[in-house]
Automatic annotation (TrEMBL):
<dbReference type="InterPro" id="IPR024775">
    <property type="entry name" value="DinB-like"/>
</dbReference>
<protein>
    <submittedName>
        <fullName>DinB family protein</fullName>
    </submittedName>
</protein>
<dbReference type="Pfam" id="PF12867">
    <property type="entry name" value="DinB_2"/>
</dbReference>
<dbReference type="InterPro" id="IPR034660">
    <property type="entry name" value="DinB/YfiT-like"/>
</dbReference>
<feature type="domain" description="DinB-like">
    <location>
        <begin position="12"/>
        <end position="139"/>
    </location>
</feature>
């Protein structure tokens, strides 16, 4: 496996593991809590996080907006902890397998997203990692500052 892909997978393994641990600190009632009126609830955030890995990978492949909308429609789980966790793990497995198969040529190939961004496949992978880390931070902050719980989950090595 390419050294760059190996590094991304190592970091994403930890990120996924920490999110599963954060999910395990929640109960079903927590999913309906919405810290800010115009923003996502904890459940909505988790549903989004559960599909990020595959969705962002598809964007990096050049999927159309219609293809992404269909993916979200079919892939987004019901807002319950078991479905969210299962979807997160399944979509990460897709991402992990797809990333493991990329060679140097593929990593350097540029694609244009349906919203006009042009990146190499490697940059799309970094973007996916940043996107997931961003939402993991939001989730952690909601647990700590809104639910007033200390999850005791390590976020970085």
């Amino acid at each position: 496996m390419n050294v760059y892909c190996k590094g991304i997978i190592n970091q994403m393994d930890m990120a996924i593991d920490s999110v599963v641990k954060l999910i395990n600190t929640l109960n079903e009632k927590d999913l309906d809590i919405k810290p800010t009126d115009e923003k996502w609830s904890i459940g909505e955030l988790l549903v989004h996080m559960s599909v990020i890995c595959k969705a962002d990978f598809l964007i990096g492949l050049g999927a159309s907006e219609e293809e992404l909308d269909l993916y979200y429609e079919e892939a987004e789980p019901k807002a319950n902890l078991k479905a969210i966790t299962s979807t997160l793990i399944d979509n990460y497995a897709f991402f992990r397998d797809a990333v493991a198969g990329l060679d140097d040529t593929e990593l350097l190939r540029e694609t244009t997203s349906f919203f006009g961004a042009v990146h190499s496949r490697y940059e799309w992978l970094l973007d996916t990692q940043a996107h997931f880390y961003h939402h993991r931070g939001q989730l952690h902050a909601m647990i700590v500052h809104i639910l007033k719980r200390e999850p005791n989950v390590q976020l970085f090595e």
